Amino acid sequence: MAPEAPNINNSRRKIVNLAPEGQNKVADTFTQLYIHVVFAVKGRESLINTEWKDKLYRYISGIIANQNQKLYIINGMPDHVHLLISMKPDKTLSDLVREIKEHSTKYINGQGLVIGKFQWQNGFGAFSVSQSGVDRVIDYIKGQEEHHSKRTFREEYLELLEKFKIEFQEKYIFEELI
To answer: What is the pTM for the complete model shown?
Structure first.
């Protein structure tokens, strides 16, 4: 007989699992993980052209769907991209972003969309979003053109890091333009 778990709080109900020994005792995993992801073109070069950015965004949407994750919105500027993703816990964020960057780079270079070689900058920013904040983040990502009429990507990114209380050393935030 298995020992009974200690009663931590008398107001909680005791959960009894009647699954036979050796069988999965958890019916499913339920999560709600919203992540606002931001990453930049290497050197912050303005390479994402308005003529093909929608194709790129559709391609990235497909990458995310193929990883069994959900994209709510994608938008950005010629030098960076914002995404709002709902993630399942079977995939790490780092693996997902690596897949997005790797395959979208191959797409851009394979299609000859830029002169020379396209690359994303190393690293990314990721910010958790509560259910109550999803609509606000969607509006924020939709409004990228408006935001950047008032501030640079660097200013925006540093503001996000500070808002989410992410410790950083500014000298490691961006690779310098070559």
So the answer is: 0.76
